[in-house]
Amino acid sequence: MTRLRTLATLVAVASLTACTDYATFVTATNIGINADVKTQDVSIGYGRTELFTGPGYPEQGEAPRAVGYINSDLHVFQPHIRQLYATGDAAELVTTTLPYPPAPHPPAEPPYYGQRRALVFSTGANVGLKLGFGAGTAPVPSSIKFGYNREEASVIPLRSDVPTEQHRDRYAPVLASMDMNLGGTATPTGTNLGITQFFATGSAARNLAARDEFRQYFQFQAQEAIKSASLTANYFYGSAGKKIEAFWKPNGAVDQANDRRIKICMSKYNLTGSVAFLINGRPEAEKDIVISCLQL
Amino acid sequence: MSHTETLERVPNSDVDRVRQDFLDAGATSVSVTDNGDGTSKVVATFPD
Fold it and tell me: What ipTM was estimated for this complex?
């Protein structure tokens, strides 16, 4: 929470102070042990900060192009790291598919014209241990974070005019993703943790989001999430299960009205799965909640 | 796209009733694996 406040403050300050006549793109990555006297922070693990400040073009719904990417196995001593940092045409080139320029329609000149207003986009991620020693003389940390911490924030400028049907608001595109996966075999000097991060603004964000492999990656993740939603339980069929079953199938067949009422109660108490799973697999206490809801 | 619901250690005497419950609840298929100790594992597949 403190980190979130810190990032929110950083973004607020950056948005207030960001000049619109130049763009700043910063990424900072740390793998291993990092100690900084100035910030009074000590971190062990992986930390990465990405920040873009510069002009947004709210009339065009556009932002300058920038892309940052890192992929690492987070091995401290023999790291495998792939990292990319690009702005402008370079960001456009690395995020589009070959051949470039795409035939038969070469890319148009970016619509960087009209009103300019400050745009800020930032992410911060930390995996591992981070100690913060705030102001004070006591040799004790003022903040301790262990595990996974991630913040993302953006300030996207809009036109100062009231939007109308003819002149609608247009949002500049930004994109940030992070994939942290466990896999492989850990060794005493290694890790089985892998990190992949993307950070992009403007047409680079649009290009990445439109690429099949990027979209399929997230579709795959969604499919995996659905798979993990599959339910497993030990069989349990007691008096509460019998009571619900009698209500569900009063004459040996499903009563559709009662079926709907049971599902409404299950949904109300976030009990996923089918009515059959409720009757035969869920604990007695959860069945009692449904019975109470049904006022049986 | 589908998801599954699995019940472990269902007494063999109750397997037919459980199977029918799953089918009545909308399962497209129900598979039963005998554990060899008087119980079975019942896996129901539901469409998403």
Answer: 0.96
